[in-house]
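Human: Can I borrow your eye for a moment on a structure tokenisation matter? Separate attempts, laid side by side, tell us more than any discussion would. Could you pick a protein and write out its sequence and tokenised fold? No explanation is needed for now; the record alone will do.

Assistant:
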Amino acid sequence: MAADWGLDRRSAVVWTVGLAAYLIGVMHRTSFGVAGLDAAERYTTGPALLSGFIVLQLIVYAALQVPAGVLLDRFGARKVITVGGLTMAAGQILLGLSTTLPVAIAARVLVGIGDAMTFVSMFSLVPAWFTARRVPLMTQLTGLIGQLGQVLSALPLAAVLHGAGWTPAFVSAGGIGVFVATAAWIVVRDRPPSVPAPPRVGGLRDVLAGVRDSWREPGTRLGFWSHTGTQFSGHVFALLWGVPYLVAGQGWSPAAAAGMLTLLVATGIAAGPLFGEFTARHPMRRSLLVIAVIVTTALMWTVVLLVPPPAPTWLLVLLVLVLATGGPGSMVGFDYARTFNPAHRSGTAVALVNIGGFTATLLIAFAVGAVLGAVSPDAYTPEAFRVAWTVQYAVWAVAIVGVLLCRRTARRKLAAEGVVVPPLREALARRLGR
């Protein structure tokens, strides 16, 4: 079995411990979402300021993507995962002990810092410990299994919070974080012993040159636009506006709306291995998968928004199933970063790609809220949601253009290196002719 997956026992252990660190990191990232009412009571503040907690944490996460990637290229995954895990754990413990709003804000900033470090580091371990044939599949599994950290925050953490209270919940979460970070330091290694270490990044000039060279690489930009166009719609739906849309815009119960989010996560996990296998078998056709996800998502939203609310249940279920493909589709962007960049700057390239979808998510989440407030200031209405969701089309249009232009540039570079990608029609004709 190990041979079939392109790994031995040691690589399996390294990946499992690294995955545990990432999963707990996702739990830390999403833990405040289950504590909104408790936080309002603890810090005596309103919902607007509480939402600022999440926004600030996400801004910190986005802003530190490139610095975290540079740290990864310089110091390696083991050190950065460990420091990132301990930083998040410190933030959770500080939040558990805090009684004032400024201290709580500082705690969530620490979580955002550690989260950025953990994410890019985990995705550098996969190509180091797996064969090239298995990297796309394992990248998909890493990203999707890691998202189960949301379940840890929604179930056991929430149970402790509402049972034992605020301090035990967040301090215990921090304790788990310390344990996993320690395990990562003991078990995780940057690469197998037989693989030589890549050249490390030098001073500031080398750092800036690495960022510049990574961005100039057409494959990085192709990954950036792929990630931008595929990720944001499902993320905005799952993280912020999906439940309000289904409840206020479609007349669903909160429990039924929450069930749709569960369906979204489960479908993404099921689709991930299929996307990974396609990417591994057809590396020169990865962009077709990305374009298919973007176009299908846009078309699905078009159909839903054209139907007067409430839309049929089957149509909304189909919408969620399509949105679920955005997560696996966005992972293709990281595969571009890996295959088009040398190992010594892969962390920087992955970070640049990740900024794309994450920035789009923040912009669209804000834009949907702004349009809702402008169209219906007093309450969320079905018609306001129909107008608000249309802001997504601008990002899809820009992303599709970016993918097509960068794909052309990337293929020109490949052709100059002796790798010619034949037109799809020609490739299909050859295959059928066999």
